Amino acid sequence: MSEPDVLVVGAGAAGIAAARAVAAAGRSVLVLEARDRVGGRVVTDHRLGLPFERGANWLHNAEDNPLVKLAAEAGIRLVDSDRLRRERTHVGGRLAEAAERAAYDAAWDAFEAAVAAPREGPDPSVAAVVPRGGAWDATVAAWQGDIIAAAPLDRVSLQDFTATALNGGNMLAEQGFGTLLAGLAAGLPIRLASPVARLGWGGAQAVAEGGFGTVRARAVVVTLPTPLLVSDTLRFDPPLPAAVRQAAADLPLGQVVKVGFRGTAALGLADFTSIDRQVAPGEALVAMNARPFGRDLLACHVGGDAAAALERAGDAALEDFMRAEVATRFGALAAAALHPNPIVTDWLRDPWARGVYSYARPGRAAARGVLAAPLAGGRLCLAGEACHARLAGTVGGAWRSGEAAAQAALAALR
Ligand SMILES: Cc1cc2nc3c(=O)[nH]c(=O)nc-3n(C[C@H](O)[C@H](O)[C@H](O)COP(=O)(O)OP(=O)(O)OC[C@H]3O[C@@H](n4cnc5c(N)ncnc54)[C@H](O)[C@@H]3O)c2cc1C
């Protein structure tokens, strides 16, 4: 079909949600996807012989997450990650003692209180308002910044950080989050390996061009990650309004790298163990998740600038770095027992992502609303995780944003 009512660019969560909404309204839809698979930043990789999430892992904000209900309908089993998780914190090579754990908990509480404190005036960075100098402050900041926001807190808007804070339950999909999304995309008219190179949107019809040929549609939903909106990978004609380009630039994607190992028996860990360690200011924090669903898997995450530098250094450097972290916590023998050839992710290098999820620069929290506003009376709608003011950075936010964009595009058809 080369003349659908609505064209959707991108078959990640936002694009799948948008396409389903258009189809449910009885209108014709076509999705053009650059990669040779659906799911975008949600992909379950089976190369280790078990499901490993290269991208999104948790269904955050479970009470307000549309994927929870869809998973149940699709027969995907969800478990409550918060209830099953066992936490383990190391101080160097030993476990934190009770007094240290209490101090760590207090540092988390102090951080939460600092970001939640009422404040007047301009929107500072998160780093400007949170405690520092305490024994555990750098560890909490590394979690909240490098891992959760995927960027150091001095680059992150306080207003956006609090508006988009993860709260509520966190669920895990037994068959895989990527498996869930692929199932939700089944049956939709999606053309894979079809990157859109040019999108004309000035006239009565949108015109998409690329190696696939030409597709014309009455309205279009574009779900590109923000770095691609400002990089001209897809050339908009006319260019996107300056305010929209600025909004995309103000919502960059942060960095997280994951390394997934098999060979975890020597670690002696219980199922669903979450492991961290105390870090000094500026030191990279590696967060580890062991044995989800009883599987022989250790997923190691590092975020922020360290993740970007390690990804640039290459897969071998990343594997060595993670093995060294495992050795620090569990000893050299346990590190050596991890199997060779782990899965190493590369979201920064990935030409169709260029990062993991969006954060807002200080003073720029309003950018999400600018990005989400329909253009040309709804004939061009941007969608994706960066467009959601509350659930930004998550699959649930991308899904809701895709649904909202589809409604705006459908309204433009009337
Ligand atoms: C390592 C990592 C961990 C994460 N952890 C979590 C988590 O635990 N929980 C959570 O909720 N979220 C998590 N996220 C974030 C979540 O994955 C994203 O917020 C969400 O998947 C974004 O969906 P989207 O549809 O907005 O964008 P995408 O998934 O990026 O979809 C955009 C699609 O557009 C395609 N595309 C790009 N350019 C073109 C073009 N020119 N033509 C055609 N198609 C194009 C891309 O290939 C892609 O498929 C994580 C992400 C990463 C990478």
Give a description of the structure.
This protein is an alpha/beta fold. The chain has two domains: about 5-75 and about 175-250 and about 360-414, FAD/NAD(P)-binding domain, CATH 3.50.50.60; about 80-170 and about 255-345. About 35% of the residues lie in helices and about 20% in strands. The protein has 14 helices and 21 strands. It has helices at about 15-25, 65-75, 80-85, 100-115, 135-150, 160-165, 175-185, 225-230, 240-250, 305-315, 315-330, 330-335, 365-370, 395-414, and strands at about 5-10, 30, 45, 50-55, 60, 80, 85-90, 95, 170-175, 190, 200, 205-210, 215, 220, 235, 255-260, 275, 285-290, 300-305, 345, 380. A seven-stranded mixed β-sheet has the order 8-7-17-18-19-16-20. A five-stranded parallel β-sheet has the order 10-2-1-14-21, covered by helices on one side. Strands 13-12-11-15 form a four-stranded mixed β-sheet, with no helix packed on it. Strand 12 and strand 13 form a beta hairpin. Helix 1 (about 15-25) packs parallel to helix 14 (about 395-414). The longest helix has 19 residues, at about 100-115. The radius of gyration is 21 Å and the shape is globular. The mean pLDDT is about 95.
CATH architecture of the largest domain: 3-Layer(bba) Sandwich
Q: What's the overall average pLDDT, rounded? A: 97
> Terminal Cα separation, in Å?
21 Å
Q: CATH superfamily assignment of the largest domain?
A: FAD/NAD(P)-binding domain
| Shape by Cα distribution | globular
Ligand roster: flavin-adenine dinucleotide
What's the domain count? 2
Strand content: 15-25%
Helix count, per DSSP?
14
Low-confidence stretches: none
Total DSSP E strands: 21
Spatial order of the strands forming the largest sheet: 8-7-17-18-19-16-20
**What characterizes the major β-sheet?**
7 strands, mixed
Q: Which class do the helix and strand fractions yield?
A: alpha/beta
Which CATH top level class of the largest domain fits? Alpha Beta
Catalytic activity: L-tryptophan + O2 = indole-3-acetamide + CO2 + H2O
InterPro entries: Amino_oxidase, FAD/NAD-bd_sf, Flavin_monoamine_oxidase
EC number: 1.13.12.3
Domain Amine oxidase: 14-112, 167-409
